[in-house]
Each structure stands twice: as C-alpha cells, then as structure tokens.
Design a protein that fits this description.
By secondary structure, the chain is α/β, with parallel strands linked by helices. It is built from 10 helices and 13 strands. The chain has a 5-stranded mixed sheet, with helices on both faces. A 4-stranded mixed sheet has the order 8-13-12-11, with helices on both faces. The protein binds acetyl coenzyme *A.
C-alpha cells in the first residue's frame, strides 16, 4: 500500500484587492507588479476572519471530497506562520469545530514550505501504522503581518487555506519520494521583525528560490526512479511567476502542465501549494495515474518537494 491524498479542498476570502487598489496606497504600478511577479489580484481576509476560520472551510471541503467523517481523522496538522494565537493551536481550534474528537492536533511552522512538511509528517505516521487518516492544512493570513506601506512586500501576498486528507492508497499510487530541507543561515532574508511585520530581502530570496526549486524537483523525480519526461503536472509554490518558470523549464513540461493560481491569489504562504493543487483538480487538469510534483520554499529558509502518483 502507498500513502496518498484522497481528498482536497481550498478556500480564499471573497474580498479582492487588485493591483490598481495598491497603486492608491503605495508607490507602485499594475505594470510593475504584473511583469515582475505575475500577480494581478489577491484575496484579503476581513478583520474578523482569522486563520482558523479559513482553515475550517478548507478542511470541511477536503473531508467531503475524501468521503471521510471528522471522527475518522486520527491526526490534524496545520502548517501556518500566522496562527490566530500561539496557543491553542489552529489545529486544536479546528479539531473542536470539525468535531474531530478522535484526532491528535498540532501546528507546524515552515513558512511557505509548511504544507510540504505537513504532508511528509502525516505520511510517516500512516506508513508507521500509527494512524489511518491525517488531515493536513496549509493556512496563512499574511495580511495581518503585512506592512501596507512597504511596496517590496505588500504587493506579493494574499490570504487563504488549502487542505488535504492523507490515507492509504493502492500500491504504486500516492507519495513516491520526497525531499525536505532547511538553511537557517538564510533566516535573516525572510522574517517577522520585532515590530511584527514581515521583512523580505527579495533579491536574496529570489536567488535562493530559482536555484532550490528546480533542484528539488529534479531530486524527487530521481529519487522516485523516474525521468523528468515522466512528470505530468507541476504544482510549485506561487511566489513569483519567474521563479515558477525556472522550475517548469528545468522539468521541461508545457505551460499548461503547471498550476498557476498566482495571478488571482498572489503568494498565500503555506496555503499556496494546496490551493493550487485543489484548483487544478477542480479544473480537471490532473487525472488518475498522473505523476505530480509539488515543490515549495519559504522563510527559514526551508524547502520541500514531493513526487506522487495521483489516484486512490
Ligand atoms: N513597485 C514598484 N517598484 C518596486 C516594488 C513595487 N511594488 N517593489 C520593489 N520595487 C523596486 C525596488 O525598490 C527596486 O528599486 P531600486 O532598484 O531603486 O532599489 C526595484 O524595484 C527593483 O528591485 P528588484 O529586487 O531588483 O526587483 P525584482 O525584479 O527582483 O523583483 C521581487 C522583486 C518581486 C520581490 C523579487 O525579488 C522576488 O520575487 N523575490 C522573491 C520573493 C519571494 O519568493 N518571497 C517568498 C516568500 S514570501 C513568504 O514567505 C511569506
């Protein structure tokens, strides 16, 4: 038996903030944002909508798509760097609201690579025989740590949540290989400052990401005993279209074989990959048997990639 994703769902707030809206609050242009990042608009949560609220909706959708009840979930892992509070964890909050009374629950933080860390942590529990069904959520409300006077960062970010249910799947399907990594030395390039706001050295993060994302993609393809020609679909972290393109070109697949939600959502941090994967499933771009590569990087610095064969 393998371990795979048997259900997935996502949620983004209704409130759309366009590049034109941002032109009114910082010294920027729609043209600059579109050409440098690929972003046209992003979703921003209301003040009274926190990470746990978004996580709950995505989780409910994932459970429905998996055909599992909340009581069947053994473990809830929530990847987030913007929990409602440090404790109780978002995982405990949604455990209660879902009625997942049999589940252990914890948050984990690996910034934009958080969902990858969550999926692989969940996979280990299932492979070890400890748990049957693990709910993994990636959620962030970056807008609450965004400095809306800093054009270097505020144009890039958006709020949202994505969730997946992991369970055993038929032999040959599910997770084929993974890579997780971290470089604490790069921490100062992307961090939450003492004033609470997000700081990013865009150039340094860009350099790291255009090297790491393509390399991680190739590593998981090789570890799975595959060739890059075997990859059917790529779901990269949605930070910058130019970084995503570097990964796509290294794998050598067509543009329509890469998930690109960045145009409408911007960078959703931990939620980017599950939102992009869920959207791609909804759009019918991934079918059973497809080899899918998920790859992300983020503050820490952290990175993670997974090669999987879609299907139960
Ligand atoms: N509008 C207009 N000009 C801007 C804006 C803006 N919104 N933001 C920055 N600029 C300016 C800069 O100030 C700079 O001006 P200067 O040359 O006078 O100093 C100029 O544009 C060019 O800056 P660069 O950094 O060279 O621009 P670049 O083409 O590299 O794009 C960007 C900047 C988009 C930030 C890019 O470096 C990038 O995508 N970096 C990686 C971001 C990322 O992946 N973050 C990940 C994680 S975020 C998270 O984890 C939560």
């Amino acid at each position: 038996m393998g371990v795979g994703i048997i259900g997935i769902g996502h949620y983004a707030p209704d409130n759309i903030v366009t590049n034109a809206d941002l032109e009114k609050i910082v010294d920027t242009t729609d043209e600059w944002i579109r050409t440098r990042t690929g972003i046209e608009e992003r979703r921003i949560a209301k003040d009274d909508e926190d990470s746990s609220d978004m996580a709950l909706i995505a989780a409910e959708k994932a459970l429905k798509s998996a055909g599992k009840t909340a009581e069947e979930i053994d473990l809830i892992l929530v990847a987030t760097v913007t929990p409602d509070k440090s404790f109780p964890s978002v995982a405990c909050m949604i455990q209660d609201r879902l009625g997942a009374t049999n589940a252990a629950a914890m948050d984990l933080a690996a910034a934009c690579a958080g969902f990858m860390y969550g999926v692989i942590t969940g996979q280990q529990f299932i492979e070890a025989g400890a748990y049957k069904n693990v709910l993994v959520v990636g959620v962030d409300k970056l807008s609450k740590i965004t400095d809306w006077t800093d054009r270097n960062t505020c144009v890039l970010l958006g709020d949202g949540a994505g969730a997946a249910v992991l369970s055993s799947v038929s032999e040959g399907n599910g997770i084929l290989s993974f890579e997780l990594g971290a470089s604490g030395k790069g921490g100062p390039h992307l961090l939450q400052k003492d004033d609470g706001f997000l700081y990013m050295n865009g150039r340094e993060v860009f350099k790291f990401a255009v090297r790491q994302m393509p390399e991680s993609c190739m590593n998981v393809v090789e570890k799975a005993g595959l060739k890059k020609e075997d990859v059917d679909f790529l779901v990269p972290h949605q930070a910058n279209i130019r970084i995503m393109e570097a990964a796509r070109q290294r794998i050598g697949i067509d543009e329509d074989k890469m998930a690109t939600t960045i145009k409408y959502y911007g960078n959703n941090s931990s939620a980017s990959i599950p939102i992009a994967l869920s959207q791609s499933i909804e759009d019918g771009k991934i079918k059973d048997g497809d080899v899918v590569v998920l790859v992300g990087f983020g503050g820490g610095l952290t990175w993670g990639a997974v090669a999987l064969r879609w299907g139960k």
